[in-house]
Design a protein that fits this description.
Elements lengths: L3 H17 L5 E8 L17 H9 L1 E3 L2 E2 L5 H10 L3 H4 L15 H6 L4 E6 L13 E3 L14 H10 L4 E10 L27 H31 L4 E7 L11 H4 E2 L1 E4 L8 E3 L3 E2 L3 H8 L14 H4 L10 E5 L12 E5 L3 E6 L14 H13 L6 E5 L17 H18 L12 E4 L29 E4 L3
Parallel strand pairs: 1-6, 1-7, 2-10, 3-11, 4-5, 4-6, 16-17
Antiparallel strand pairs: 2-9, 3-8, 7-9, 12-13, 13-14, 14-15
């Protein structure tokens, strides 16, 4: 008679043996929600506990220069699933949709023999583009302020999968609201140049302590996923951990919003404990997965495969990465679009509706101009142009835009940024007076002249904009 423990071990061995017969690796991508790259042990923050992420980094590779193209949830995720920047895929405002003709990761990997699964938060649409083979959402549990990933469904799937799969496990943590932590002090928090002025701010410290506690809760979930993968899946399993964008730089094109954690484990392929400082981007994820699966990225994708780096080669994947900012969306009414270009050292930012140039953007339509001025005033301390030397100023504290010795670098970045914008089909250009208000199709789509729980509009301006006052994005 076989004991229960022996029988359990045999069952696990049988599952692993079945999995190992697949020549194509299983792919697991764990995505946290609203977490700064600076808030991990493996990225240098000793004040926050991230043992599960640190383990992946220790057993695999840590990327020091990984980026998303937009520091808000839906546009960030849209890049992972399409291989295209937000402007090209159509999702460049939060809670908006990608274009209906997009061929997403579900169809791309399905053609290559994979089952494509979403477990957790979606935040992308429409459903006909993101037609997951299996999909499980939130699980309510009393111990935390947010929903939890469906770990039971994930474990069952790992145990019974009989073909290669790509699973996105998308957490609801550490996104606010956070845990309530009493008694926290400034000594419990690691400060950086962008927030060190708040060392004596009790409300900030309490909020940050709750955020750290939420990070720890997310790591518990990730640890369960790693345990299930170790139990039921063979070595031919690629596991990636990332977070969709930084919370401290949300809605900006600063590195505190666009730089993301990115650690990868793939036994017998990736050298344990390795690091890469090459520029990679969320648009590169789908091309990489297609490369791993035996296919190739389509010509209309923006991303490139970084599989060579995973296999140990130190080669350039991207000369530049780019960023998009769209403050105007279903939550906000500020018209303040920005674009960014960044190489391994220098970054250029153009704030198209800066207070410096707002008068040139006015239309002589008082109701439209109200919102253009409102956007410029909301960010009155942000200049029209910004240039940073990231080698010497990684937190972008010293704007070098007027340094004559950097003129050639500035002009090169400007030229290449606008070339990229043209290629993306951007509605902005290098000419003043082009400051469209954007909205979705139909009366209720992102209207600026209506109150929401997050914004109040003066009564004299409410419901005064016409359809012709907007640049209408028809697929939203």
């Amino acid at each position: 008679m076989i004991s229960c423990s022996a029988q359990k071990k045999q069952e696990v061995a049988n599952v692993k043996n079945s999995q190992s017969q697949n020549t194509k690796p299983n792919i697991i991508f764990y995505l946290s929600d609203d977490q700064d790259v600076y808030d991990y042990g493996c990225y240098g923050n000793e004040k926050v506990k991230t043992p599960a992420v640190d383990r992946i980094a220790r057993e695999g590779i840590l990327f020091e220069n990984a980026f998303t193209g937009q520091a808000i949830c839906a546009p960030s995720r849209s890049q992972l699933f399409t291989g295209k920047y937000p402007l090209k895929n159509g999702c460049f405002a939060n809670h908006s949709k990608v274009k209906p003709d997009i061929v997403s990761i579900t169809k791309q990997l399905r053609k290559l023999g994979y089952e494509v699964v979403l477990a957790g938060k979606s935040h992308v649409s429409p459903d006909e583009v993101f037609d997951w083979d299996k999909e499980w959402h939130a699980v309510e549990r009393p111990e935390g302020p947010r929903e939890y990933i469906p770990i039971d469904s994930i474990q069952r799937y790992f145990k019974t999968a009989n073909k290669p799969f790509c699973m996105f496990i998308t957490s609801y943590y550490p996104h606010s609201e956070y845990f309530n932590v009493d008694g926290a002090s400034a000594n419990d928090i690691k400060f950086y140049p962008f927030n060190e002025s708040k060392k004596n701010n009790a409300a900030f410290i309490k909020d940050k302590a709750g955020y750290y506690r939420s990070i720890e809760e997310d790591n518990k979930q990730l640890d369960q996923v790693l345990a299930a993968a170790d139990n039921y899946l063979g070595d031919n399993t690629l596991i990636i951990y990332s977070a969709d964008h930084g919370v401290s730089g949300k809605f900006t094109v600063k590195d505190i919003g666009l730089k993301v954690p990115f650690v990868v484990r793939w036994p017998k392929v990736i050298i344990p404990g390795s690091k890469s400082n090459q520029l990679i981007h969320y648009t590169d994820v789908l091309p990489t997965f297609m490369d791993i699966a035996g296919g190739k990225a389509t010509a209309d994708m923006d991303g490139k495969s970084f599989l060579p780096i995973l296999k140990g080669q130190d080669i350039e994947i991207n000369k530049y990465v780019y960023g998009v900012r769209t403050n105007q969306n279903i939550l906000n009414s500020e018209v303040f679009p920005s674009r960014m270009i960044r190489d391994s050292r220098y970054k250029y930012i153009r704030n198209f509706n800066s207070i410096e140039v707002v008068e040139k953007n006015l239309t002589n339509k008082p109701n439209v101009d109200f919102f253009i001025r409102r956007g410029a005033t909301a960010f009155k301390n942000e200049p029209f142009e910004e240039l940073y030397d990231l080698k010497n100023d990684p937190f972008e504290q010293n704007n070098l835009i007027n340094k004559p010795e950097l003129k050639e670098i500035k002009e090169r970045l400007i030229k290449d940024l606008f070339s990229w914008m043209t290629f993306q089909g951007d509605f902005l250009n290098n000419q003043p007076g082009n400051m469209p208000l954007i909205k979705g199709k139909g009366k209720a789509g992102f209207r600026l002249d209506e109150d929401t729980p997050r914004r109040k509009i003066p009564d004299s301006i409410k419901n005064t904009l016409n359809e012709g006052d907007y640049l209408v994005i028809k697929h939203w």
